[in-house]
Write a structure and sequence with these properties.
heterodimer; A: 438 residues; alpha+beta; 5-stranded mixed β-sheet; 4-stranded antiparallel β-sheet; 12 strands; globular; B: 190 residues; 6-stranded antiparallel β-sheet; two-stranded antiparallel sheet
Chain lengths: 438, 190
């Protein structure tokens, strides 16, 4: 195979991809020294591993593993209920620290972001490499756990970089060095290439990523669709995918899903879980002044099988009563008494800014306006007394019962450790060190 | 009085055309016979600062015009002077916290820092980004637990000291792991 660089340029653009190492588990370890160096697994409330520390990964624990199986391989594993509030607070800090250096940050997920630092060497008085080092050092120090970063001329290659050395790596891949990094890399390791595509590549006789990158543009265009052509171009050092730096103030879909234990075939109870999810999703939609045109409800049974139905609303709104009316019919179709269910969920789709476009024939819109006023009041009561101060009767069973019985019922540590004036529903938005302080 | 009416006509013209009239337009506007009288009135208005003139002598609007033009849509009056004064104040949050991203809190327990005025239940704000100095109250990791003590540096020795004579200083066996520096103690009574 040739050893020629794919491009002669090093950094026509400078893109940084940063990834929190075992993010949720690290959030837990960094706030409690009793957990440091131990196999820590979050997701206790769901009964499956959602994130695991490097110590747990070393013992073969993988995401999605069931608690009982983990105990077999890793008897000293420490299970912790997820504390999404703390993880979100730390995630926001993560992005703010990166924004100290550049405003162009794409919040890709709770524990990952892209940052464009093109042209910042002069204003910051540092090389690209130094900027990346400084950002990483500040993240490691101020959040108390490590991050891995990749610096490259585009997103696809930056992603290869951040995965190259984990945990706590910083891998710099200038355009003219890409070929060295991808020469033995299996294509499915590339961001955006799934098992389907990699199987297709294999049929085409392509075994590693460099072979893919070396194919001619015409050949690629013949065989692949646009997204994969872009990946090909980025592997060749070009810049095809700009960062999406728009703040996440607009939600195009909102989903609320909640697991409960034990699994249940009590129709009224399962429906009340769904009803609560719908209420919660509507709260969020109203907060962003959005209304819903259609939504999907789904039920997950004890075999982890999920079935869902999409329902449409005659008029867009964010009123749970209106949605529950149509959701009831769909629920009747989905619910099967012979199954036990462990989770319900709702995804609000086709969200749009809430405004009145036109009046309808049956005066429905006027009713929705009334509901709007009603929910304005309800939301302000909730603002003052907590999210669940007021809820619909149809959600009552879900509110009355604890979400999880038995071992899984454990609440996140922070919720059981309040200061005077804090309530179960409202706490100070600063992450807290846990464990005894002597 | 007459002058005011003429000025009003100028304003109406400005509202309609979004520009000031030319001299011949003013002639018709004001029903004057000669441009000289137009000229005189314009000078008078300019003296009072109601209109301005550019270097070619053409009329320019002043704040007077735009103010009148938008009067109909403004409902609030002047901003409250209090608002301007408040620019120079900070919130309790800003006062207590310097580096927001690096600030954490914890709940004090035990009595080892009682002579420093820190007692069990106190809310402690700490900063992970600060470099710990001699005499700072720090939060360190000792035997897999957090411990809050004074940091003492004597020569090349670093150790932790309680603010309570009941406790002995802690001399670390290996490296002392300091997680953060205490920046504030908050005690809420009600």
């Amino acid at each position: 195979m040739t050893n020629k660089p794919l491009t002669l340029h090093s950094f026509p653009h400078a893109i940084l991809h940063i990834d929190g190492d075992a993010f949720f588990a690290s959030c837990e370890q960094s706030r409690n020294p009793a957990l440091a160096g131990k196999p820590v697994i979050t997701g206790k409330e769901r009964g499956i591993a959602s994130s695991m520390s490097y110590e747990a990964k070393a013992k073969g624990v993988k995401r999605g593993m069931v608690m009982a199986d983990i105990k077999k391989n890793c008897p000293d594993a420490i299970f912790i209920p997820s504390d999404y509030e703390t993880y979100s607070l730390l995630s926001k800090r993560f992005f703010s620290i990166v924004r100290r250096y550049t405003p162009d940050v794409e919040e890709y997920s709770i524990d990952e972001c892209f940052a464009e630092i093109t042209g910042l060497q002069r204003p910051l008085g540092m090389s690209y490499e130094r900027i990346a080092e400084k950002i990483k050092a500040e993240l490691d120090k101020e959040l108390g756990f490590t991050f891995s970063a990749g610096l490259a001329p585009n997103k696809v290659v930056a992603k290869i970089g951040s995965k190259w050395k984990k945990p706590s790596g910083l891998t710099i891949i200038p355009g003219n060095k890409i070929h060295e990094f991808i020469k033995d890399l299996p294509p499915e390791k590339i961001w955006g290439i799934g098992p389907q595509t990699s199987a297709y590549l294999e049929r085409l006789g392509i075994k590693d990523t460099l072979q893919f990158a070396l194919r001619s543009e015409e050949w690629i265009k013949q065989k692949f669709t646009k997204p994969h052509c872009e990946i090909w171009a980025e592997l060749n050092g070009r810049y095809m995918m700009p960062l999406d730096t728009s703040p996440k103030s607009r939600y195009y879909s909102i989903q609320k899903m909640k697991t409960f234990t034990p699994a249940s075939n009590d129709k009224a109870y399962v429906f009340s879980q769904l009803s609560r999810n719908i209420e919660n999703a509507c709260i969020k939609a109203r907060r962003y002044n959005l209304s819903v045109k259609s939504f999907t409800i789904f039920l997950k049974d004890s075999f982890f099988e999920t079935r869902g139905i999409e329902v449409k609303l005659s008029l867009p709104c964010a009123v749970p009563e209106k949605m529950l009316k149509v959701a009831t019919e769909a629920f009747d179709l989905l619910f099967d008494k012979r199954n036990k269910y462990r989770a319900t969920g709702v995804v609000l789709l086709k969200l749009d800014e809430a405004k009145i476009d036109q009046l309808d024939l049956f005066g429905e819109i006027l009713k929705i306006e009334e509901y709007k006023q009603l929910y304005g009041t309800v939301d302000s009561v909730r603002e003052k007394y907590g999210k669940h101060a007021v809820y619909l009767g149809s959600s009552h069973l879900a509110h009355k019962m604890r979400q999880h019985e038995g071992e899984r019922a454990e609440v996140p540590l922070r919720k059981g450790n309040l200061f005077l004036g804090e309530t179960k529903r409202k706490r100070i938005g600063i992450p807290m060190f846990m464990g005894e302080v002597r | 009085m007459i002058k005011n009416q003429k000025l009003e006509k100028l304003v109406v013209f400005y509202e309609h055309h979004s520009r000031m009239p030319s001299f011949s337009e003013m002639l018709r506007l004001w029903n004057y016979k000669s441009k000289n009288s137009v000229y005189k009135l314009v000078n008078k208005l300019a003296e009072e600062g109601l209109v301005k003139r550019d270097k070619n002598g053409k009329l320019l609007p002043t704040g007077y015009f735009s103010e009148i033009a938008v009067l109909g849509t403004i409902e609030a009056g002047f901003p409250s002077p209090a608002e301007e004064e408040l620019v120079d104040t900070i919130s309790l949050d800003e006062y207590l916290i310097k580096n927001r991203e690096a600030t954490y809190m914890l709940k004090a327990s035990g009595d080892s820092m009682k002579d420093a005025g820190i007692v069990a239940g106190d809310m402690v704000l700490v900063d992970r980004s600060k470099t710990p100095k001699d005499g700072d109250v720090v939060v360190a990791e000792v035997d897999s637990k957090w411990t809050m003590k004074y940091l003492r540096k004597r020569g090349d020795k670093t150790y932790l000291e309680a603010a309570n004579s009941k406790y002995k200083p802690i001399h670390p066996k290996s490296e002392l792991k300091i997680a953060a520096v205490v920046i504030a103690i908050i005690r809420k009574y009600k």
